[in-house]
Amino acid sequence: MTAPRVAYVLGTTQGGTGGHVAMLARGCAAAGLGVAVFGPGETRSVPGLGPAEQQGTAKIDFGTVTISGRPRPGRDSAAVRRLRRLLIGLAPDVVHAHGLRAGAVAALALRPFPGARWPGGRRPALVVTVHNAPPPSARAAAIYGLLERLVARRAAVVLCVSADLMARMRRLGAREVGTAIVPAPGPDPATARADGGLRLAGAAADGRPVILAVGRLAAQKGFDTLIAAAARWRGRRPEPLLVIAGSGPLAGELSGQATELGVDVRFLGSRDDVPELLAAADVLALPSRWEGQPLILQEALRAGRPVVATDVGGVRDLAGDGAALLVPPGDPAAFAAAVLSVLDDSDLAASLGAAAAARAATLPTEADATAAVIALYTRLAAQTMIAEDIGSPATQYPPGS
Q1: Span 165-174, mean pLDDT?
Q2: What is the pTM for the complete model shown?
Q3: Burial 135-173 (b: 16+ CB within 10 A, else e)
C-alpha cells in the first residue's frame, strides 16, 4: 500500500503541544507520508513548521481551524464545520488530534453528517493524544469529563502521556489505549555553557545557589507554591536565588506575591535558552498541581540536574528511581525542605544528578516517537482499507456514531 496520509489537529501551540506536533509532522513528511496540520493561525510560527524552515524538506500542508479553549457553542460548531471541509478535501487516512478539545472537535467533524461524503466512502481513523489531566476544579472536571467520554467513544486509538491518564481512558471505555512518546525537543542540555543564560538575562547568581523553574505562569504549574516555599529559605547565607522562566496570565499576581513575601525572584519571561539556564541551576523545581509528561523534566534529566518535583501525573514514571525528590502538591513547607536538603547535602545532590543522567539515557528519542506513530498510522490505514474492500463499515467507529 502507499504511504498513509495524516492530518494533525491541534487547538493550541502552548505547553509543548505545538513543538510535539511539529516534530511528528516533520518526521512523517520526511518519511514520505502525506502530512497536513490544522490548527490556530500561530501554528505557522511554531519552530520547524514555518515556510522558510520547510525548504528542502517534504511539503506540509496547513489549514487554519480555531478551536476555543473553553466551550463556546457557536465557535465550536464553526470549528467542526471548517475542519470537516478541510478533511474531506484532504482525504487523509488518519486524523491525529492533540488534546481533548481538539480531539472532541475532530470526533464531531468525522461523525456522519447529511451531505458529507468521504472520498472513497470511508472515513479516516481517529487518533487522539491526551497530553494532560483535568484541572482540579469541579467545573473543569465536568467539562473534561464530557470531552473524555466523547474521545473514548469515537477514537480508534487514544494515546496518553502518563499511566494515570491511560487508566482514566480505559475506565471510560476507550477501545485501544497506548503510550504517547513525547521526547523533549532541542539540543542536548549537557552541552550548554554554564551560567550563560543567567548572564544574558542580567540575573547572574554571584555565587548564590540557583533554584530554576520553567513553565507557563498559570495555575497548573504551582509557582505560587514555589514562591511560598522560597519565603522559608530567606535569611540563609548565601540566600538561594529563585529564577522563573516563562510567561502567562499569572505574571502580575506571582510578582505581587513575591514582593509581599519579600522573596528575591527573577522573572525572566519566555526564554529560548533553557539548556543554558539548566546548566546554571543547582536544582530544577517542578511544583505543578497536575501534569502529564513535562518536557522540562526531561530536559533537566538530560542535563543531569537535581530535581525537586511534586508527585503528580506522569512525573514519577518519567523520573524513574532516584532521579528526583518528590513531594505532595500544594505544600510549600515540604517543597522548601526538599530543596534545602539538596543544597545542604552535596552527596545527595551528586546522587540525584547521576541518577538523572542515567534515566535520561533510557528516554525515547524523536526518531523513536516518529517511528511509533508511523507504525500506528500504517496499521490503521490498512484496517480501513480492508473494511472498505469487504463492504463493511469502518471498524473504528461503533454503531450509531
Answers
A1: 94
A2: 0.85
A3: beeeeeeebbeebbebbbebbbbbbbbbebbbebbeebe
